[in-house]
Amino acid sequence: MDQIKIGKFIASCRKEQGLTQSALAEKLGISDRAVSKWETGRSMPDSGIMLELCDFLKINVNELLSGEKIMAESYDKRAEENLLSMKREIEEKNRQMLRTEYLIAIPTVLAGIVLVFVASFVSMPMWLRVVLLAFALVMIFAVAFIAVGIEQKTGYYACQKCGYRYVPTYWQTNLALHIGRTRYMKCPKCGKRSWHRKVLTKED
Q1: Residues 118-161: pLDDT tens digits?
Q2: 183 within 8 A of 157, measured Cβ to Cβ
């Protein structure tokens, strides 16, 4: 999707309705800075407020995502194109989130291991040794919880038995046995336990 084009379209529709950025932001319960970022193409409206935004701008979601008014004869085609484009963008955001998980977790775990090694083998007072070990463990566990949260919210898990894709709860994800991002969990659809692999989309 062309964010610059969409931004200009939002600005144009807003002005047609006689709304300032501040007035539109107030109606949506957001900051006028957010509206400004949409209109300059620096970000997109969140899916949770798209319908409300379209209602105020007197357009539909398909037109919003196209960045222009759509004639009836080309509506279905543009709708399909927009859905595919949104799917690609969601997949890319999910990939970025999973990369962020590694960027946070790997350096922290390595730093924790180094601290444990130093505390275990370098001569130092006992109180300092205890502090270093405690700090390393707290740091590793804290980042592990954050990393699991990122993984849990990103994409879906696919059941090996029935193929059902779903988002488990945080604790189901956290407490499950795992190898990398593949976790041993109970499928909410078929009820069977198996290794559920991480996937980025609801459908292939």
Answers
A1: 998 999 999 999 999 999 999 999 998 999 999 998 889 999 99
A2: yes
Angle at 87 between CA 94 and CA 144, to 5 degrees: 15
Q: Which two tokens stand for residue 26?
A: 């107030």
Pairing, β 156-158 against β 193-199: antiparallel
DSSP output for 49-112: HHHHHHHHHT--HHHHHHTS---GGGHHHHHHHHHHHHHHHHHHHHHHHHHHHHHHHHHHHHHH
Measured CA to CA, the distance from residue 164 to residue 146 in angstroms comes to 26
Confirm if 185 and 177 have CB atoms less than 8 A apart: no
Cα-based distances in Å from 151 to 148, 155, 161, 167? 5, 8, 21, 10
Across 119-153, b (16+ Cβ under 10 Å) vs e yields beeeeeeeeeeeebbeebeeebeebbeebbebbbe
Using CA atoms, how far apart are residues 193 and 188, in angstroms rounded to an integer? 10
Where the chain has pLDDT below 70, the residues are 1, 72-75, 80, 84, 203-204
Q: In what side-by-side order are the strands of the sheet with 156-158?
A: 165-166, 156-158, 193-199, 182-186, 177-179
* pTM > 0.85: yes or no: no
